[in-house]
Amino acid sequence: MNPLVYAAGYLWLWLTTMLQLPLSQPAGSRSPIPLSHDFEKDGQVAKWAPDQPQAWGEESFKLNFGDRPAALAFNPEGSLLAVSFGTEVEIYDTSSLERRHLLQGHSGIVTHVEFHPDGQRFISGSERMGRNMETLVRVWNLTQAEEERKVTHGLSDIAEKAASTATHELVLAGMWSAEDVEMETAALQQGIEETLRAAETRRDVRHDRAFVGTAAKFGSHTFSHNGSLMFYISEHNTAVALETSTLTEKFRMSHSDAIMWVGASPDGNVVGTSSWDRTVRLWDAHSGELIRTLAGSKNQNWAGSFSPDGTLIAVGSGDSIVYVWNVETGELVHHFQGFRGWVRTLSFTPDGAFLAAGSGSGTVQVFEMATGRRVQQWQVKSVHIGPVFEISDLQYSPDGTKLAFKMADGRVVVYDGEENLKWEFDSVENGMYIGSQDLVFNTASSIVVSADSDKDVRFWKL
Ligand SMILES: *[C@@H]1O[C@H](CO)[C@@H](O)[C@H](O)[C@H]1NC(C)=O
Ligand SMILES: *[C@@H]1O[C@H](CO)[C@@H](O)[C@H](O)[C@H]1NC(C)=O
């Protein structure tokens, strides 16, 4: 792999997921976004749902955080919502919107959260960013999380004592004045606390309670369907499968370049990995053996998904094509074109009849699996293939009636294909921002929740 392309890919990944670059705001670029092609049904262009489009400020509800929220997840029953912001995670009761848990176990920025199917265990994954130098995957038992929190608070007490001892010694030695103590104590205490936390992390890694690596993105699931396995990326080219109950390593899956997506098949028997080495690999979930390598893509592979019945695997590629292979035979069943830019987000309908995919240039297309026919096309009107038009978080609602996605400038778009209705929720910050955060449907498919760049998490009723 050309190192320049590799470096550019990483820079891009970092730019689009982490950094939010304020751009100069083109006048009149606000809602609704101009389209050259909209969703339609029976030749009729999609209509606005009542009171649409809307903008920030008109949401049904919002939560505000001290840092930018990055990742969201509902538990399987939909009674809890996890929000990561900065190095912390908070878990809310969705009926009262009261905070249930505060999870402080990272020194890197938490960019992935996910509940185990049992609703009791929980994963958080952090990434290295700025001076937050850590890539770590942590497994929590939420029943014990309150205990862990006490331990964490204990660390700040210890740091306070250590800082006070140190400053006392410095004064006794005649090195520091009372003014120095006053000026430096807070920073010293913070530094000691960070050092202690880092030592705690190293200890947890030694005892297999935390894992050095990252949770895969682009539609990846950390847990297999019944939660017996979990996956993370250790170094760029290797994905690790752990037995969730014991947190012991089962096997490793390797590529010759960075892995972007990992997921288990719905029956839990096959694991798929999608990589920048232009291949997709299928692995036996019991033995860890490589079953098959799926090639054909002419560029880096990104998002992947098994079809709900597990017979197909779809992968979006940097060559602007979505490849669909038969899992059993390895035969290429479809290659869907018409995208501009890479394809880094895709979603099957819950019944598996349709596949939606979104690209880097503001294109969303939906294909019928039985015929390979394109049935929907949504295209931003622009000759520019610019980063603000990247589509992310494309997903069908749990009931399959609505398709939702985000654009890199923070917009949320939702379409109901049966009613031919659309919603658009626009950001109204003093600038456009590259890099959107997470978007999730509630379990009833009646609300979309968006983590936004102004440190708010917004709830939009549909
Ligand atoms: C979580 O912790 C509780 C309380 O210690 C324990 O009873 C339970 O078995 C734990 N659950 C798992 C899945 O480890
Ligand atoms: C989870 O699924 C795997 C793969 O099908 C199976 O081998 C395992 O027994 C299942 N575990 C549980 C706890 O159901």
Features of the shown structure:
462 residues; alpha+beta; six-stranded mixed sheet; five-stranded antiparallel sheet; 38 strands; disordered N terminus
Sequence-ordered SSE layout with sheet pairings:
Blueprint: H1 3-17, E1 22-23, E2 35-37, E3 40-41, E4 44-45, E5 47-48, E6 54-55, E7 61-64, E8 69-74, E9 80-85, E10 88-93, E11 99-104, E12 109-115, E13 121-127, E14 136-141, H2 145-172, H3 178-206, E15 210-212, E16 229-234, E17 238-243, E18 248-254, E19 259-264, E20 270-275, E21 280-284, E22 290-294, E23 301-306, E24 312-317, E25 322-326, E26 332-336, E27 343-348, E28 354-359, E29 363-368, E30 374-380, E31 391-396, E32 402-407, E33 412-416, E34 421-426, E35 432-433, E36 439-441, E37 447-451, E38 456-461
Parallel strand pairs: 5-34, 6-34
Antiparallel strand pairs: 1-35, 2-30, 3-4, 7-38, 8-9, 9-10, 10-11, 12-13, 13-14, 14-15, 16-17, 17-18, 19-20, 20-21, 21-22, 23-24, 24-25, 25-26, 27-28, 28-29, 29-30, 31-32, 32-33, 33-34, 36-37, 37-38
Helix pairs in contact: 2-3
The structure holds 2-acetamido-2-deoxy-beta-D-glucopyranose (NAG) (2 copies).
**Mean pLDDT, as a whole number?**
89
Count of DSSP-assigned helices: 3
- Unreliable sequence segments: 1-29
Largest sheet: 6 strands, mixed
Rg measurement, Å: 23 Å
Query: How much helix is in the residues?
Result: 10-25%
Dominant shape: globular
Count of strand segments: 38
Concise structural overview:
By secondary structure, this protein is an alpha+beta fold. Strand 23 (301-306) and strand 24 form a beta hairpin.
